[in-house]
Amino acid sequence: MNISDEQLAQLAVLARLDCASDMSLRDDVDRILHFVEQLQSVDTSQTAPLLNPLEMTQRLRPDVVTEPDDRERYQKCAPLTEAGLFLVPRVVE
């Protein structure tokens, strides 16, 4: 499916794009429309709709510590710390 000049102008108005000087936009839109045609040709009749991605089981990685505890090294340059926390001045009363 190729897009006409009028269709491209209307699309530019709807998307609020200034494409009068950009001729590569037509090629980009043509490629997008071709890709949509490819997607529409795929048979999805045997695929059950997925209402929510959270319905699927998530693959989890093992909960293993991979980084060393460098809290003291990171807090050496802090002006104030207490019990492993950074102390900062109050900015909201």
TrEMBL record:
Q: Which branch of life, at top level?
A: Bacteria
Q: What is its EC number?
A: 6.3.5.-
Ranges annotated as spanning the membrane: none
Record key words, sorted: ATP-binding, Ligase, Nucleotide-binding, Protein biosynthesis
Catalysed reaction equations from the record: L-aspartyl-tRNA(Asn) + L-glutamine + ATP + H2O = L-asparaginyl-tRNA(Asn) + L-glutamate + ADP + phosphate + 2 H(+); L-glutamyl-tRNA(Gln) + L-glutamine + ATP + H2O = L-glutaminyl-tRNA(Gln) + L-glutamate + ADP + phosphate + H(+)
Return the similarity comment: Belongs to the GatC family.
Q: What does the record note on quaternary structure?
A: Heterotrimer of A, B and C subunits.
Q: What does this protein do?
A: Allows the formation of correctly charged Asn-tRNA(Asn) or Gln-tRNA(Gln) through the transamidation of misacylated Asp-tRNA(Asn) or Glu-tRNA(Gln) in organisms which lack either or both of asparaginyl-tRNA or glutaminyl-tRNA synthetases. The reaction takes place in the presence of glutamine and ATP through an activated phospho-Asp-tRNA(Asn) or phospho-Glu-tRNA(Gln).
Q: What is this protein called?
A: Aspartyl/glutamyl-tRNA(Asn/Gln) amidotransferase subunit C
**Natural source organism:** Allohahella marinimesophila
